[in-house]
Structure formats: C-alpha cells, structure tokens
Amino acid sequence: MTLIVVGLVALCFFLVARVTDPEGSEVDKNKKSGIAEAERTGTLNSSARHEARSSRRSNQANKRPDTVTTESGLTYQVLREGSGQKPGPKDTVKVAYRGWIQGGDVFDQSPEGKPSEFPLNMVIKGWQEGVQLMRVGAKYRFTIPPDLGYGTRGAGSSIPPNATLVFDVELMEVK
C-alpha cells in the first residue's frame, strides 16, 4: 500500500510540475530528480516507472535532427522515401512492419516475406496518422505515444498500460 501511495504522489508531482511550469526550468529538474530517486529506491510503482522511462526516451528521440513530431505527438523518421500513392483514411494498406515497446521487446511483426493488410480506419490512431504521411515504397519509423496507441488499458499481456510503441513500417501497396 505504501508503494502505491508513494508512486501516486510521485506521479502527481510529475503532472503538477508539468502543468505549472511548461518551460522546463528548475521545477522540471526537481521533478526528474524526484522520479529518479523514487526509481532508485524502488518506491515508484511499475506503471509510473514505465511512464517515466517512456517519457525520457520520447524526449531523447525528439532531439534527433531527422525526427519530426506532429501536432498530435506522433514522432516519425523517414528511413526511405517512397514515390507512389499516399493512402487515405478509408484505404486498405499492405505493409511489412515490426513493432516493439520502446526500450523493450518486439510484440508484433508481419511474417517474413508476407506483408499484412489492414484497413487504416481499423488500427490505432498512431498508425492511422502515420501511414497517411507515407507514399508507396516508403519506410518510416513511428514512435507512438500511449494516447495514440493503446492508452491506459494496454493490449493483452504484451503491451502494458501507458506504453510508448515503436514501429518500422514499409508501405507496399494501397488498395
């Protein structure tokens, strides 16, 4: 019970500091050191710990010069440009992909040599937005924050709540 309370207090401190000082000055530094201390001493619960780690990794990814972050928070890197058609929101796409939890293990991928087909309006918001940026032949890496992925509910046993997801996606065809 004590660990849960301490974890919630640390998370509240994190959120309050973020709202009261969006510029990231001294309050942001104190918040980060408080979370680091809670992680070091083992007093941060696993969900809050995962969220803190994902936030740090996302901030590091956003500092790369070849990375673009959209208004929604989706981050992408163009690994290879394409020259074909761009899909629309109701199109079905054929893709080769590999997905993993940021800093973790692969949880899904298309079978080797066998692209998968998805209607774009039936996948997570991060995919819907990201794949529409691509042209056939392109390969992108998407970093999808929880609110554009599976959010607070997660997905089964392989994707925990509040997980930041990373996908390498190659767009092969638009139907």
Number of helices in the DSSP assignment: 4
Q: Beta-strand percentage?
A: 15-25%
Radius of gyration: 18 Å
Q: Helical residue percent?
A: 25-40%
Q: Total domains, how many?
A: 2
CATH class annotation of the largest domain: Alpha Beta
**Average pLDDT reading:** 78
Distance between the first and last residues' Cα = 52 Å
CATH topology of the largest domain: Chitinase A, domain 3
The best one-word shape is globular
| Helix-strand sequence | HHHEEEEEHEE
CATH architect. name of the largest domain = Roll
pLDDT < 50 runs, ≥5 residues: 1-33, 52-61
Structural class: alpha+beta
Total beta strand runs: 7
What quaternary form is this? single chain
Main sheet specs: 7 strands, antiparallel
Family: Belongs to the FKBP-type PPIase family.
Pfam family, one: FKBP_C
Protein name: Peptidyl-prolyl cis-trans isomerase
Catalytic activity: [protein]-peptidylproline (omega=180) = [protein]-peptidylproline (omega=0)
Any overview of this molecule?
By secondary structure, the chain is of the alpha+beta class. It folds into two domains: 2-62, no CATH class; 67-174, Chitinase A, domain 3 (Roll), CATH 3.10.50.40. Helix content is 34%, strand content 25%. It is built from four helices and seven strands, in the order H-H-H-E-E-E-E-E-H-E-E. The protein has helices spanning 2-20, 26-41, 46-62, 125-131, and strands at residues 67-69, 75-80, 92-101, 106-109, 116-119, 139-144, 165-174. Strands 1, 2, 3, 4, 5, 6 and 7 form a seven-stranded antiparallel sheet that branches. A hairpin with a 5-residue loop joins strand 1 (67-69) and strand 2. Helix 1 (2-20) runs antiparallel to helix 2. It is globular and about 35 Å long. Mean pLDDT is 78; it is low at 1-33 and 52-61.
